[in-house]
Design a protein that fits this description.
- The chain is 32% helix and 24% strand.
- By secondary structure, it is α/β, with parallel strands linked by helices.
- A hairpin with a 4-residue loop joins strand 5 and strand 6.
- The longest helix is centred in the first third of the chain and has 32 residues.
- The protein is elongated and about 100 Å long.
Length: 286
């Protein structure tokens, strides 16, 4: 009985794990098939080819609509009569007249508003009318153009032939008038024999005189009749009622203006003032 039992355990066909048992190799698993994502195939219901075909008419319609809108806007701006120049106005003039400005501007009436070159109009005005310092050209939609000019202000006059050449605060000689405007001093330049004539020529001295005249307090500027320049540091102002002011050079102009204002108030009957050293002004003839 014992031998039979032993033979049974050692039998090759027994399923146990005894010494006589045989392992069977596991069968290899077949690889899983991977399906492409739904709708990703070229012929699938949502494939890029079909989606492109569906978007095609929409894209074409959008492009056609954009082209029609662009053509419509271009027609409104350039082809229609709704947005064309019908009226041009000018303002800000003092010596000039609005008619002079309009004539020099030559804005084309009847032209499309959008075609008016504002920079070109400004350049044309400044070139034809040197008295104009700046100008704003504004489109007043739907049918107007506005010209707002700023004229140059003379701060000094230079005698020229039978008239006077006007010079602004920047030293620009912009016009010649037959009659001297009130409240603007006349330049008297006599620096030919000055030792500093080589260093400071007439043009440099003119700019010094312009800076002095343009920087005077308004009340003093209105009473200044002449600005006499003998050299860079020898400038004399001639005021109304025969009063004389020794100014010196163009340096410390603000301090000299304040000192002269105080002297004129303190000594209204004096006829000679010296502010060449503004910290130590002097007065005489009172």
């Amino acid at each position: 009985m014992a031998g039979a039992s032993t033979a049974q355990r050692g039998s090759p066909g027994a399923p146990g794990k005894g010494p006589g048992s045989v392992k069977r190799p596991k069968a290899a698993k077949a690889p899983k098939s991977r399906r492409p994502p739904r709708g990703s195939g070229p012929a699938g219901p949502g494939g890029p080819l079909l989606r492109g075909l569906r978007r095609g008419p929409v894209l074409v319609a959008a492009l056609v609509l954009a082209a029609l809108l662009a053509a419509g806007c271009a027609w409104v701006l350039y082809g229609s009569s709704w947005l064309r120049v019908e009226k041009v106005t000018a303002g800000g003039t003092e010596v000039l007249t609005p008619e002079q400005v309009l004539l020099a501007a030559a804005v084309p009436v009847g032209a499309p508003m959008v075609s008016v070159d504002t920079d070109e109009v400004e350049a044309r005005l400044r070139g034809r009318l040197p008295r104009i310092d700046s100008v704003d050209v504004v489109r007043a939609w739907p049918r107007g153009i506005g010209l707002k000019v700023t004229e140059r202000k003379p701060v000094l006059l230079i005698e020229k032939d039978a008239g006077f050449e006007e010079v602004d605060a920047s030293g620009v000689r912009f016009d010649t008038v037959a009659k001297a405007p009130g409240g603007v001093p006349v330049l008297q330049l006599s620096a030919d024999r000055s030792p500093s004539g080589r260093r400071f020529d007439a043009e440099r001295l003119l700019h010094e005189a312009v800076g002095i005249a343009g920087g005077l307090p308004e009340a003093i500027r209105k009473e200044t009749v002449q600005v006499k320049v003998g050299s860079y540091d020898s400038v004399v102002l001639e005021l109304t009622r025969g009063r004389t002011v020794v100014w010196g050079s163009g340096e410390q102009g603000d301090a000299k203006g304040r000192a002269l204002t105080a002297l004129l108030k303190a000594s209204p009957k004096a006829d000679r003032f010296d502010v060449s050293v503004p910290t130590a002004p002097a007065v005489s003839g009172s």
